[in-house]
Amino acid sequence: MPTITQALPSQLSTVHNIVHTTIRTIYPRYYPHGAVEFFIAYHSVEKITADIQAGRVWLLTEGGIFVGTATVSAHEVARLFVLPEHQGKGYGSALMDFCEDIVFSMHEYVELHASFPAYALYEKRGYKPTIYHKVPCDNGDYLCIYEMKLAKSNRGIGEIHCMSNDSPLILRPIMPSELPLLEVFLYEAIFIPPGAALPPGDIIYTPEVFIYIEDFGSKPDDICFVAQLEKMIIGAAWIRIIPAFGHIDEETPKLAISVLPEYRGKGTGSVLMHRLLEELRARGYKQTSLSVQQQNTAVRFYQRLGYKIVNQNDQEYIMVKKLN
Ligand SMILES: CC(C)(COP(=O)(O)OP(=O)(O)OC[C@H]1O[C@@H](n2cnc3c(N)ncnc32)[C@H](O)[C@@H]1OP(=O)(O)O)[C@@H](O)C(=O)NCCC(=O)NCCS
Predict the structure, then answer these.
(1) Which CATH entry fits the domain spanning 171-322: 3.30.300.210, 3.30.750.24, 3.40.630.30, 3.50.50.60?
(2) 319 CB under 6 A from ligand 1?
(3) Is any ligand 1 atom within 6 A of the Cβ of residue 15?
(4) Which of 264, 309, 315 is the best mutation target for the ligand 1 pocket, counting ligand atoms within 8 Å of the beta carbon and taking the most?
(5) Distance 270 CA to ligand 1 centre (A)
(6) What CATH number labels 3-154?
(7) Structure confidence by residue, pLDDT tens digits, 149-206
(8) For the residues of 200-231, what is the DSSP string, one character each?
(9) Could you tell me the pTM of the whole model?
């Protein structure tokens, strides 16, 4: 299943490679030399770095391989590139669906600059040209490009041709408006021994459980990533520093995770954990801990991710993963 994640500063070269390889391979079929060099210079390391640092750059992976990227800035979608060997498989459309969701959650229209190779894709999605630019480049060459626009009310009226049947799994930070969902994921994280009855829903409000999510987002170490499939959040993994069982010290956040029951065992938990652990590494955390019931099959899941048992009581293990 394709996965879309926010690009990290350490992924600069991945984004740069997708953009530059695609320009060098595809653009000479559509543009003169001077225009191709203009595109190359325009998508500079400095510009990509600034966009990644601002959290605007997204990467699409399939089977562990990075195949495409796009950037969203206010009402603009930019730098949409899919590597030449992966084109024509629906990845560009998947990235556009995702980028439009972000823009339309805040704005009434999307704007973009459409290069000739991508023009047809945008046109099929209902975008209309608004301004034509003819930019003089080196050697007397010209770079011709259209600005295009899609209003929210016109979304979906174009003939969208998506060849991939799989919707991408999106891994992203939780949005403030979604924080109430943590109650659902906290409940789902509670271990139920095989054959036991489900606990009542209000079990999450007992203080030793609720401490995992109470006023989540109010503390600097409150970090949560969610997995989104189509319009639905199907998993959440989060950390916070709390004086609960398994607390190691004030620098070691404790982790909790759950995936909705019908989506378990399909790899979602693993990619969500990898994304959260990458983020923790990027933010300089040295390790993270968790507590898990000894009978929970999640013990094996955590061991696969590199967690080690460091302590235990009669029912639970405390596990720690070093991040360096
Ligand atoms: C643990 C959990 C987050 C893993 O997410 P996932 O999407 O199922 O994980 P993946 O598909 O990437 O990996 C599957 C592994 O998760 C573990 N797992 C735990 N509960 C599982 C379940 N109900 N179904 C499938 N796998 C489960 C297994 O170790 C499995 O590995 P295996 O195939 O070698 O047995 C998820 O199964 C879940 O929400 N479980 C209930 C909540 C929970 O126990 N949270 C941890 C609290 S400490």
Answers:
(1) 3.40.630.30
(2) no
(3) no
(4) 264
(5) 8
(6) 3.40.630.30
(7) 999 988 866 554 443 456 789 999 999 999 999 999 999 999 999 899 999 999 999 9
(8) PGGGGGSHHHHTTTTTTTSSTT-EEEEEEETT
(9) 0.76
